[in-house]
Amino acid sequence: MTAARFHLAQANIAYMRASQDDPLLADFVAALDRINELADVSPGFVWRYITDSRDPAQREFDDTLVLFNMSVWESVDALHAFTYRTDHAGIFAKRRKWFEEALIKTGLPAFVLWWIPAGERPTVAEAKVRLKLLADRGPTPDGFTFKQRFEPAAR
After folding, report:
1. 10 forms bridges with which residues in the sheet?
2. Would 148 disulfide with which of 18, 36, 37, 139, CB 3.0-4.6 Å?
3. Radius of gyration of the chain (CA)
4. Both ends of the chain: CA-CA distance in Å?
5. Domains held by the chain: number
6. Which pTM value belongs to this model?
7. CB atoms within 10 A of CB 75
């Protein structure tokens, strides 16, 4: 079996309803490390951008209520399985308790997918461009969603 030529990059943002030290977000903050560790050992996981998003000095967006996450997976199916068929699904189901609609607050969608050559790592700047492309153009091979997917050959 040959190695895959492409991997799936994903970036997501969340707009918190309050600061991370607010009791409203206590359950979410308490689950962060456990869910990140679960991602790290999930089938198909390749890499995760690591920053201490709880430290306002390490934020990717000027607005301290925006959380940023980015990772790389072997396939759309692997990421989909982690998102919806692990303990992550329970956290995801409660998102409206902790987060407001990202598109309304930031002008950017909450989530974007795109293909990268295997072995490469996406940058925060690239993720921001992909989120903006999805917001401006809708799903294309340059930025898409689970609902409207593109194959790596579409690049």
Report:
1. 71, 113
2. 139
3. 15
4. 23
5. 1
6. 0.91
7. 16
